């Protein structure tokens, strides 16, 4: 029953009972001391980090002129006035589905990228990775590289220890505060709130969120680090569903590296220098194969390539590689001794990555569909809407002359600025129904005229009366139509007129 | 106590020693910080129980003495302070002025709706539809005491037969049978006449007999042709709207034992701004006058 573990010696099937002392159910935290590394992957990571952090810190400061009395911040979630500003776009709370749509696009885009190139999100762009990287860089500048840090932590807690730790934590805290402060600026006018925070005049809520995001940044990037990815984040758990044998993932080419050992001819290309272990931010050994803990940052690739270059060997012992190619190389080199022939045979067996496959087509299809729906929704977005609510208590009113009257609330929402529209209301329904709108003036033709409010809602109470002689069924459909000054129909909204059973 | 800890050959991990029908559980240790975080939450809850009301015992407050009920007045005061600039304008304006100003009107309609639900809906219904038995509809066009802004404001302020002041609305209607002013037969004739005012009489002879009695006893308040009198709060009798039912039995009962609906005076219970907002809201319900 050992089908899942090929290559194990026969006769050792099932579980082997070995007397062990009672194991602990809790594991102590093993601190990871990643070593600095340089190379193309590291350079790409620095570039992504610089771009994302500048975006995060600077975007709230971009000004965007929208006219008098309107926030001039390009990206702003204005909670107090219930508006979301994003450059050219401005949405109302009931249009939050545009934001939802953007998040859905992001999620599917993430699925698509993962199915093609593995955990690019985790390794390069996830805030946890970016800020941890930044914090590690600061740590390295202050305490030194891997060995220096290990020595410092194992050594005595002398003045030097205290000084370095103090400086490091102060620097971390400063970054965390900048991060927490920048978050607040997406919800408040950036220059104003920045001054308020610094001068102690901000509201308690602002300081509360500022403290919260400062604390989470400090704890997650300073202390929790890989623990977040390994134990807290759900994404590593279900991203396996997006990966398949055609996805590029960080892999160790065991067919080339094994058996590990001294570069003396009898061993594979892996010299067991453990450089890949020492640079790993999550403290794992990539040579163990695909692991949940691997965030796919690819720093082990740079570390290994450095060593391979020093030894004068071909780079790429660890590489972004598909599992299909890995298996093909493995099959092609089975039985071959270590050496240039094995390397050539293994590399020759590789095929270009299959980018177009049912999974990626599906993701691309869904992505396109959602994109089109979003685009359609935005293009067909109404800037002027009318809602008609019929009174429910009472359903209808009998008047003193025996006529029947229904009451309606008209809500006219105008998602625009700069102009006030005057619209005449007409009722479409059975002949004889009379429409009045309370507190609304009438135009030359005697029709009630309602007005919009700049970037807001106006509410009107309309009464529709059926004179005593008019025979109507219990429910009659009616339509409220709004006409502009030229008499053109602008909007229409249906409702019903109720009366007693005839 | 786990008895048989094994090393799983496949994963290289130990089992916990637990076994269910041959299924064994691998020991995947939880990080210690996770455990300590759990302990920290337990500790937090203990501190919380000491400081805040958390025990299901009546009157048990924590050391801080904080309660949600105790915090409410301050929150209400805060809300009121936020509304005060608008309320001041509402207080200073007449209901007509409020209705003419879109901003004030929107505020008054919202505030009036809440005040109506809190104070008026019990008798007059959630939408002002009224209720049988003397609770008039405020959504129709029949106003016993008048439907102008001023009249509505007056009625709300001083109430109806509330014994509040000389300003109050409504006088009492005599109970014609109970005080032996009319016999039952005469009342029957008067009721037929009242029905005839709206063209609904079934016994023409009785209606004619009742005409004289009506002129003597009822016309002073309800008018010659039943047009009603708002000064006295005598309802119209020649329309389709009946406060106590428009069938003959109900009318007979009304004449025999009289009717006198009562509404409390809200002046003093509600502040002037709320009464102004209620006036605007009630005026809008039935279209006002």
Any overview of this molecule?
The complex is a heterodimer of chains A (502) and B (289). Chain A has 502 residues and is an alpha+beta fold. Chain A folds into 3 domains: 200 residues, no CATH class; 105 residues, no CATH class; 115 residues, Immunoglobulins (Immunoglobulin-like). In chain A, 40% of the residues lie in helices and 17% in strands. In chain A, a hairpin with a 2-residue loop joins strand 3 and strand 4. In chain A, helix 2 runs antiparallel to helix 16 and helix 4 crosses helix 8. The termini of chain A are far apart. The N terminus of chain A is likely disordered. With 289 residues, chain B is mainly alpha-helical. Chain B has 3 domains: 57 residues, no CATH class; 105 residues, Cytochrome Bc1 Complex, Chain D, domain 2 (Orthogonal Bundle), CATH 1.10.760.10; 74 residues, Cytochrome c-like domain (Cytochrome Bc1 Complex, Chain D, domain 2). Helix content of chain B is 48%, strand content 4%. In chain B, strands 1-2 form a two-stranded antiparallel ribbon. In chain B, strand 1 and strand 2 form a beta hairpin. The longest helix of chain B has 25 residues. The radius of gyration of chain B is 34 Å and the shape is elongated. The chains are: A alpha+beta (502), B mainly alpha (289). At the A-B interface, strand 1, strand 8 and strand 13 of A face strand 1, strand 3, helix 1 and helix 4 of B.
Question: SSE layout and pairings?
Answer:
The complex is a heterodimer of chains A (502) and B (289).
Chain A: E1 26-27, H1 40-58, E2 75-78, E3 83-86, E4 89-91, H2 97-117, H3 120-125, H4 127-143, H5 146-154, H6 159-185, H7 190-199, H8 204-224, H9 226-232, H10 235-238, E5 248-252, H11 254-257, H12 275-279, H13 299-310, E6 318-322, H14 323-332, H15 340-348, H16 358-379, E7 384-390, E8 397-398, E9 404-414, E10 422-428, E11 434-437, E12 449-451, E13 456-466, E14 475-483, E15 489-498
Antiparallel strand pairs in A: 2-3, 3-4, 5-6, 7-9, 8-9, 9-13, 10-12, 10-14, 11-13, 14-15
Helix pairs in contact in A: 1-4, 2-16, 4-6, 4-8, 6-7, 6-8, 14-15
Chain B: E1 15-20, E2 23-26, E3 30-31, H1 32-51, H2 68-92, H3 95-100, H4 102-119, H5 121-124, H6 149-158, H7 184-197, H8 204-217, H9 219-222, H10 248-257, H11 272-285
